[in-house]
Amino acid sequence: MVCLGNICRSPLAEGILRHKIKQHKLNWEVASAGTGGYHTGEAPHKLSQKVALYNGIDISGQCARQFEASDMLSYDYIYVMDASNYQDVKRMSGRSWDPSKTDLLLNELYPGQHRGVPDPWYGGEEGYHEVFELIDKACDNIILKFKA
Ligand code: 4NP
């Protein structure tokens, strides 16, 4: 799960998908990263933590890191939050770039529409709730799509 800062959107996506993986007793690994390194080492944004916990998910132990080309090889699927994340991941992956395993997360909710998860960074708490709902529904579809 990849966004820009790895403190607002992708930490929610990591926590939400991990929660569902546990609920469905699946043996999947999930991680998140930011295309930017400005927040490396930081915990998720306070409002991402608050909204996750409001929905029964504790993401306080997660730690921001920057996306690296090896992630493209290490993971079966790379979900990006918006179109600029997609371009950055493509550029940063270099020779490892694999478009067949990279997609916008919301294409799992709105197939073929190429919608982005809005960045809640510049707004208030309501934006984080909206983002939670979008990611939650997309992750439900990921579970349905890939579970055996
Ligand atoms: P995120 O949000 O990509 O969802 O983690 C942002 C976090 C930090 C910044 C921008 C977006 N920033 O400019 O520092």
Name its key features.
148 residues; two-stranded parallel ribbon; binds 4-nitrophenyl phosphate; Rossmann fold; 7% strand; 4 strands; mainly alpha; two-stranded parallel sheet
Word description of this protein:
The chain has one domain (2-146): Response regulator (Rossmann fold). The mean pLDDT is 98. The protein is built from five helices and four strands. With 148 residues, the protein is mainly α. Helix 1 links the parallel strand 1 (2-3) and strand 2 (33-34). The protein is 43% helix and 7% strand.
Structure at a glance:
Its EC number is 3.1.3.48. The chain is mostly helical and 148 residues long. The chain has helices spanning 9-23, 46-54, 69-74, 83-93, 125-146; strands at residues 2-3, 33-34, 78-80, 102-104.
Question: Which helices and strands occur, and which strands form pairs?
Answer:
Elements: E1 2-3, H1 9-23, E2 33-34, H2 46-54, H3 69-74, E3 78-80, H4 83-93, E4 102-104, H5 125-146
Parallel strand pairs: 1-2, 3-4
The structure holds 4-nitrophenyl phosphate (4NP).
Residues 3-9, 34, 38, 119, 121 line the site of 4-nitrophenyl phosphate (4NP).
